[in-house]
Amino acid sequence: MKKVDYNIYSTLLNTYQNYVDAETLWSKFWGSSDDPQITVEDYCEQTRKELIDTINRVPFDSEAADKGKAFNEVIDCLIEHRQSNKMEIVSDKNTDTIKVNFNNRTFYFPLTFCVEFSKRYDWGICQHYTSAELLTSFGTVKLYGFTDVIIPNKIIDIKVTGKYEAFKFRDSWQHKVYPYCLEQEGYVLDSFRYDVVVFGKDAPKVYEEDYTYVPERDIPELIEVCEGFINFLNVYKSEITDLKIFNNH
What we know:
Elements: E1 4-9, H1 10-20, H2 22-30, H3 40-55, H4 63-80, E2 88-92, E3 97-102, E4 105-110, H5 111-118, E5 125-136, E6 139-151, E7 154-161, H6 174-184, E8 191-198, E9 205-212, H7 215-235
Parallel strand pairs: 1-6, 7-8
Antiparallel strand pairs: 2-3, 3-4, 5-6, 6-7, 8-9
Helix pairs in contact: 1-3, 2-3, 4-5
């Protein structure tokens, strides 16, 4: 076994990708505005600071993130026919609601919808931890993370959002990291799907994004993004306080 030089979890690469794409994202949201809320320079610095905070595991408060965690836990409990030990979940058939108390917030989800949605994953494996080593020019990276659900021949990542546009998660890294890690562990799962649940004013809607893992294409891309991220780590090493990422903890 090679010495691991860096520990990088899959969703951290998404935050790094936001930093890399900062100017493009700024143009998308504010480029056509005569009076943008933030300058492109300030937005780039904001994404840099968010990445540093994520590396350092600085606590942050996000209602959207909490709602996603609450919904995922509801679905996990329905798949595994169990009660939650992470948050208070109460279902009410009379009002067709599931009430979740989590992190000092309360969320309501339609009971019938949640039950039907969970049936997509009958006999699925929830929150499977996977990891694998990846050799780069900077040393060995340990990639790791938790898959939301694994069903026969497919990895599922459940997303919750208030608005959806086609291929919203195309630049995310889960659909490359998780199949790579599972392949290194001996599981051949080259089919990956984001199941995107939109909770808006109307009834919930579900969208699907399907991706296929191709090692010859995706492994070089994983190496490239990891090497770019490691370059970032080296440049801003003085600001990094959580040394787990350098496998020094």
